[in-house]
Amino acid sequence: MGRSKTFADVEVVRAAREAFWSRGYESTGIADLETATGLNRSSIYHAFGSKRGLFDEAVESYLDDVVRPRLAPLAAEVVAPDALETYLRGLREAMVDEPTSLAVNGCLLLNATAAMLGHENGLQEVVTRYTAELRAGVTAGAIALHPDLDAPTIDLIATTVTGLVFASMVVVRVDRAAAGRMLDAALSASARV
């Protein structure tokens, strides 16, 4: 049985998450993680097994602290008709109008897939689940907004909006205005009937 996480563990993982998020997995060395977390090398290896073990914990922290709270209204048992619009506007605000880690660094997971780490099955599985969560939320939001649309039209909206959200999370690192235009297009695509 694994050990339960303490407040200190959570804070260490969050600090490591910020280091990985700003530098990328490959460019974040153990010395960077020591500085970010306040732990020494042996403590990091003792607690997490490896740099990759700490990264995996950081990814779960990213999903739990950053991604899922934003998606929660789209994953509710009853999704409000304005939930998709609220999600997209909130995402646009976080990426374009505020100096958040998402605005500055893009998506932690999508960035990792572009590196060598993206070829590893473990990360691919996490990204596949993340994609499914986002698409399910967008689909639920589209159905709530347009309950009379047929399944192929809902599928088209979900595919378009999900793709635009992911594209915006990649391009935001170099062009916030373009990311904003993509999210505006996602809003427009979700509102059309």
UniProtKB/TrEMBL annotation:
UniProt DNA-binding residue ranges: 29-48
InterPro entries cross-referenced by the UniProt entry: Homeodomain-like_sf (IPR009057), HTH_TetR (IPR001647), Tet_transcr_reg_TetR-rel_C_sf (IPR036271)
Residues annotated as domain HTH tetR-type: 6-66
Species: Conyzicola nivalis
Keywords assigned by UniProt, alphabetized: DNA-binding, Transcription, Transcription regulation
Domain of life: Bacteria
SUPFAM superfamilies reported in the protein's UniProt record: Homeodomain-like, Tetracyclin repressor-like, C-terminal domain
Signal peptide: none
GO molecular function, one term: DNA binding
UniProt name for this protein: TetR family transcriptional regulator
Coiled-coil regions listed in the entry: none
